[in-house]
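Chain X:
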Amino acid sequence: MMLIPGRVPYATWKAIHAGAPATLDPACLPGVAASAASVTRILARGAPVYGINTGFGKLAHVRIDAADLATLQRHIVLSHAAGVGDPMPVPVVRLMMALKLASLARGASGVQLETLALLETMLARGLTPVVPAQGSVGASGDLAPLAHMTAAMIGVGSIIVDGQPMAAEAALAQAGLSPLTLGPKEGLALLNGTQFSCAYALTGLFEAERLYRSALLTGIVSTEAARGSDAPFDDRIHQLRGHAGQIETAAALRGLMAGSAIRASHLHHDARVQDPYCLRCQPQVMGAVLDLLRQAGHTLLTEANGVSDNPLIFADTDEALSGGNFHAEPVAFAADMIALALCEIGSLAERRIAMLVDPALSGLPAFLTPRPGLNSGFMIPQVTAAALVSENKQRAYPASVDSIPTSANQEDHVSMAAHGSRRLLDMARNVDAILGIEYLAAAQGCDFHAPLASSAPVEAARALLRARVPTLQDDRHMAPDMAAAIALVASGALIACAPPLPGLA
């Protein structure tokens, strides 16, 4: 995928996360070279300039001799590579590297062309630094994780090659590459920025978009299982309110239900006046989720295409300006929004599962088993879904409202974007499981309506599941059935049963 600095679209970031190669538009290279030359001229003036010939953070007042400038940049990388915890997933590291590459290529960071070339080559050859996932507070940039990424570039630490960790220097040598020798400003430029938080937040956004679409389909299977009405999806209702996400979601739900013989069977003379909110209000809740995800996506796309290190180099005037673009508050807010969306997708789905297992609400056999009492059916899968929803509620508390001073109070307000972004993947896994349980329960509910069939998308979804999981007659080991259904949700196979559904791109 071609990275055109400042103009990389959402679909390209998504493709890079999925494993697509990332290459720079050569048109950016003269600007990068001009920025590096500007650093040389700034140094020649002899004045103290933060991060170029001074210490860092609280030590910015310490002047560094010219003979020690290369050592200064190496030392900041080694000292800041202080992360802990499990390694970042490889796709997220690759996305972080591509985000850093695109940021440096804007020509405002003062780095050498060789630095960009090494990042680009590492991405192309599958050399992925081992980066501990904990240790960033989201300002002054994602220092610790980006320092681990940079350490691998100078031959320190470990690199994943063909799925296995190797010593960084050996991995580079095996690929015919030499460790990077950092020039003035380069260590700081590489480890100062929001790329760790942004990579995790974008990954959470990709997952949330898939789960939004998946929940539309599982929600309609549940609606059919409960013999719910499609009247609440009527376009006239949603046009009167005017929210774009709600209007699009209602249209998608109508399309997923169109042509259903199950719906036709109770279209007239149904004694029920209204469905419960978990069915009736799907356009309102899921439409709000879509609008929220789009708003978060707008923020993250802006961040992904921006420059967030410090100081910034303006080659036309040979100025190095210190600011605060490394503060990841926009990313923190976006991550909190995605967390809310994930929480609500799972919460609404769990309410549909609870409705289906309750015969007073669904009209189906208790706990969706033909012989309740002797069998417990879906009693405990619903409890599991409830547990996961509660866990996600706890995780959805806004990370951005927290702060803790660092660097001897020089960095006295931080964003916590790293925490807010990193939790999204665990939340998404929980929603995968909730939707997988709903998928099983809703398909079981529809089985009670045989020989009536639902719409083409619903029947395709049911056939996909039934090829792996038979209808539940008597109790059996539930965990394998749940694992199979969850895998269909997580892989995107479920979404493939439906026509194109609304999304972010």
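Chain Y:
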Amino acid sequence: MKPNLALPCLCLVTDRERTASGDITSTVSAAVSGGVGMVQLRGKDYPAGELLCLANELRNATSGRALLIVNDRVDVAILSGADGVQLGESGLDVYSARKLVGPDMLIGRSVHSVEGAVEATSSGADFLVLGTIFETSTHPGAHTGGLELIRHVTGKVETPVIGIGGISESNVAEVVQSGAAGAAVITAISMAQHPAEAACRLSAAMTRVHSSVSEQIR
């Protein structure tokens, strides 16, 4: 059975260059305790063996507590028992990935436009990671779509959309208010002195707005 994507979804994307403690596993564990519901392991510069080792560590840290999603590496996602895989917009297509992972693993797709979101949805993606929303030090100079991009995309697709890019405690409520099903962050949690507390504040802000939006829809 495919894992449940609980909403609103607070996702922590790993980055060893932006982890204040220097220990990704302990940071992830603390963040999950604070309310992170999804951890995306991103490690483009890791050798395969090192990435699998870290994936196994994070699987242990998140098991029964949060979803573990592996970025791009379908093989590592399968071998580590992850809950899903996140595909880049120019990476492996959703259809091909589904043949590899089977029906019980989540597949996310990174998108940057309405057209990309519609295509990913029609291909069977379970969720979309949409960016870049705000300016971010992770991708300096990248084009930003702002809240309007969220509104445009969520107006065209029903697939859950998770915003990414420059999201922090100060603007995460606006991201959800604009229609996003959640937010993905790096710095806001991994560079915080207390990752659990940072995650708790982000999660609380998202939940308040999500509950309000849900009530309005009813």
